[in-house]
Amino acid sequence: MANNGLNRQELIGNLAKDAELNYVGEKGTPKLTFRVVVNTGFGDFAHTEGFDVVLWGKRADGLAPHLVKGKRVFVAGETRTHSWEDKDTGQKKYRTEVVVPPHGDILLLSNGDGGGRPAPEAETGGDGSEEEIPF
Predict the structure, then answer these.
(1) In the beta sheet, which residues pair with residue 77?
(2) Exposed (0-12), middle (13-18) or buried (19+): which is 56, by Cβ within 10 Å?
(3) Residue whose C-alpha is closest to residue 14's, from 73, 99, 100, 75
(4) Is pTM, for the whole model, over 0.90?
């Protein structure tokens, strides 16, 4: 079968809680999981949706300390659903996640607190003197 499909999910939202880092398997592969809450629309058309996100490997270790409750993020990944049988009830369970592949993106965004602007000491040259910013 030809490999010509597309499975891409892009989200901008806030973390519902701190990300959880676990180490899986015999090799202890890092697995980072977190939930992104996305608000869309406005007024009577406002809608909130939550997405479970998974990131594997070295990037998971590096990003874990930065992915905290309330942090605004951009995530690009693939939607995947897997199933298992519940041990207690025998019922089939399903879980849909956004899996960030090696070529996917996770970007930490400003929470609307002026992020992206230099700190006040950077604007004044660090010594309190008023220097003109060259842009």
Answers:
(1) 9
(2) middle
(3) 73
(4) no
